[in-house]
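Worked problem 6 (solution included).
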Amino acid sequence: MSGFNLEQFLPYLLNQAAEASSLAFQQVYKDRYGMLRNEWRVLFHLGMYGQMTAREIAARAQLHKTKISRAVAKLEARRFLTRTRDGGDRRVEHLALTAVGQAAFNDLRQVAERYDRALVADLAPQEAAHLRALLAQLAQQRVSDPLRGK
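Solution. The predicted structure is:
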């Protein structure tokens, strides 16, 4: 038997923490707006950064374009966003929130801010800042594939 401990395997711990920390917030956007996770992510990117293309959202959110396409279609059906064809490249669509989408974003942003504060309420401010910095650092790392010997 190896010394490997699944409970201490960093990808496992990160996944467990992500699931545990996001469940209550997921329920809010699902109950209030009937959204799933990818729809929420698209809505928040448009709310935070303004008009974007699906390709720009994919790069920022690290979502596959098919997932973005489905989310965009659902958000458009709810009149949360509009699509405008690019004048120079007809393959590109510019996505923007409608007034209804902006109102949903503003509402959920306030909930997200309160939720974020509650998640770190039991941590010292320095611990919360350090946790955020470490997670951001991990998110930026490109770990080589040990199975390929790189």
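Discussion: The chain has one domain: 10-140.
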